[in-house]
Amino acid sequence: MGLVAAFGAADVSSVIGSASPAPPAAIAPAAAGKSFVTVVRHESAPAKAEQRRADTTSAAAPEAAVMVPCAGGRWQRDIEQDLDQLGRFGAVIVDGRQSPADCSTIRAFQQRFGIEPAQGQADAATADVARRIAVSSTPQRQQRCDAGSDVTACVDLSLQTVWVMRDGAVVTEPTVVRTGFRGHATPAGIYRINKRSEKEWSDPYSVWLPYWQRFIGGIGFHESTTYLHDATRGSHGCVNLLHYDAVQMWDQLQMGATVHTFGRRPGT
After folding, report:
1. Mean pLDDT lowest for which of 13-17, 59-63, 69-73, 152-156?
2. d(Cα 158, Cα 162) in Å, to the nearest integer?
3. Residues 112-146: pLDDT tens digits?
4. Residue 18 · residue 264 · CB < 8 Å
5. Gap between the Cα atoms of 254 and 138, Å rounded
6. Burial readout 217-233 (b: 16 or more C-beta within 10 A, e: otherwise)
7. Which among 195, 193, 194, 198 is positioned nearest to 209, based on CA atoms?
8. What is the 3-state secondary structure (H, E, C) of the chain?
9. What per-residue confidence (pLDDT) applies to 245?
10. Torsion from C-alpha of 134, 60, 35, 23, nearest 10 degrees
11. Which residue(s) pair with 172 in the sheet?
């Protein structure tokens, strides 16, 4: 029966990047803070997401706004520019006007990053995620992780994104995360994965943490089953991931892998 005392620190909404404080040069000690979770048992296979997620600040996500499929709007050109920069979701024409091809590409992007509803509309949530992914995909931003030859998970707290590097090259493209809310902020620092379990039980929150990879105190990576793009929510310090990304991180990391968290989530 495993026991974990977790530590938290602060939350956000999920948005733009801000300047990152200088990270410590060595692996940081466990940060003092409020108890986040006690892990009392674990199993070898992930459970279906039925229980409420421990790492949320509100009981229920608001219903998705009704959107017209393929609707354009004020964010159309911004989304086109970012998706054109990324270049891996389909063709777009950067002209600020929605087209069938644009709609298809935007829909593919929304489906990849769990944006609801995924109907190809140029909405604010899609523009925000596209901007964060585009900025996180630039060499200048990725250099902030200062990854060496080790396998390193780079968590940009300011942009609420993560990617994985090996031997100085990106092996897992940037994706979205949700980190600690105000009072439980995910600490910035350099850590190492020190426990892994495909399905870990959290007490007192009475919830399973799929693809659990702990890196400091009771804080780690795990799949979230709540809507990741709800800005009213945040974790108690953990790095929440979409299912696809939790599996990717599980496959890319291992015991002892480096985790570098840097920057600061807006609002924390």
Report:
1. 13-17
2. 11
3. 999 999 999 999 999 999 999 999 999 999 999 99
4. yes
5. 26
6. bbbbbbbbbbbbbbbeb
7. 198
8. CCCCCCECCCCCCCCCCCCCCCCCCCECCCCCCCECCEEEEEECCCCCCCCCCCCCCCCCCCCCCCCCCCCCCCCHHHHHHHHHHHCCCCCCCCCCCCCHHHHHHHHHHHHHCCCCCCCCCCCHHHHHHHHHHHHHCCHHHHHHHCCCCCCEEEEECCCCEEEEEECCEEEEEEEECECECCCCCCCCEEEECCEEEEEEEEECCCEEEEEEEEEECCEEEEECCCCCCCCCCCECCCEEECHHHHHHHHHHCCCCCEEEEECCCCCC
9. 98
10. 10
11. 164
Tokens of 19: 């300047």
Structure tokens of 119? 């109907």
Return the residue matching tokens 């970012």. 82
Q: Provide the token pair at 93.
A: 């024409």
